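Problem: given the chain below (473 residues), write out its structure.
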Amino acid sequence: MSSRRRAALQGDAAPWAPEWTDPKRHLWLLATIIPLLPFAAWGLVEATGLAVFWWFGPIFVFGIVPLLDLVVGQDGKNPPEEVLRRLEEDRYYRWVTFAFLPVQYAAFVWSCWALVTMDLAVHDRIGLAVTLGCVGGVAINTAHELGHKRQQHERWFARIALAPTFYGHFFVEHNRGHHVRVATPEDPASARLGETIYEFWPRTIVGSLRNAWRLERGRLTRRSGSVWTWRNDILTAWAMSLGLWGALVIALGRSLLPYLLVQAVVGVLLLEAVNYLEHYGLLRQRVDGGRYERVDPSHSWNSNNIATNVLLYHLQRHSDHHANPTRRYQGLRDDPHSPVLPTGYAGMVVLSLVPPAWRAAMDPLVLAHVHGDPGRANLHRRTRKRYPTPASASAPGAATTDARVEIVAVRPGAAAHTWRCPGCGYCYSQSAGYPREGLAAGTPWALVPDEWCCPDCGVRDKGDFVPVVSRPT
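Solution.
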């Protein structure tokens, strides 16, 4: 067997792969600019004497970054397939995300100290709290990147990034809820065509919390029978936030508490504003059996604007992220079949705050994406009256053909003891089970709950898993 063939079969990075260098390799470090915003605000106030710069966070995020997106332009180039494994294994990219956390916490603690000890007017304190909230919102995106990884220390880093905003349940709901139900009416984090951001915010915040608790309760009930345990990921995350906030309030005084609430609210609203635009109006269709079709690039809005992509670790290549959730940010690829936003996330968030302008820009793009058939869009109840569904439309629950459904035939005489996720390759073994989900060693596949999904990628549910069969000897 040739060395080339052997390497291909073993999955190694091919030695004949083209020499390729990531053109954004050093730009990723610019993401640490975001947690420096409170320090930048202080410096600008000191340098200019203008108190307005305490509001530098929203000025930068919603003013400067959208302008940079327009000026710097786009980058739609993808890394060659042959270098993806080598790129994913480059530890430099992991340390880039790790570097965000100490800067985030330095800014958080310093800002809390400044809010209490500096001689500032109330509106200036609010401005600094809002600036800190912008840091918290982007930190949730850093937690998003870390929380999808298989390494336990990265998942713990994700919880640490979430603690300042008291939004730790995002770790549970996003991975095990949103990725399973994305682009469906059942997903609280997928916005509907015609839904304003002001309607979306309460729906997604309440719905995500409720769904996170439902998921964690189901997991723990299978495991120990009680949700009131230190193994509860939501309670653990909230305890981290409570400990952080409590320590700061004890050290600096109760006057800090209102500003902690302001920064948390701003951070959460910023995160959910991004959620609003990522899947606006997009809908996965029903397939035979009533299940939703698998997630593909057509179910997420993309953008290749360089400035926002660098600051958000390629979050705007969202289609590839949903298809490959464990793929690291540097390897995410642009897909020509993905719908494209008019500009980067920062500019689109600003646009979403003006619903008539948002609908004028986005609704025609949604309808064009579904080929003029509103029945294939995720419609808000108000919008259903505006866009009557054609008779030919695929209504929810209708059976359609999904060419992507894999049909797995188990050969006669074969026995399956292991089932593999076709997305990320995770294997469920009956002999090992999955104790964290309450599936003890020896749990047969037939007793695994139907709503169970892949614990690694969070995309494929039980019905997607492929039996790994072996003939009896």
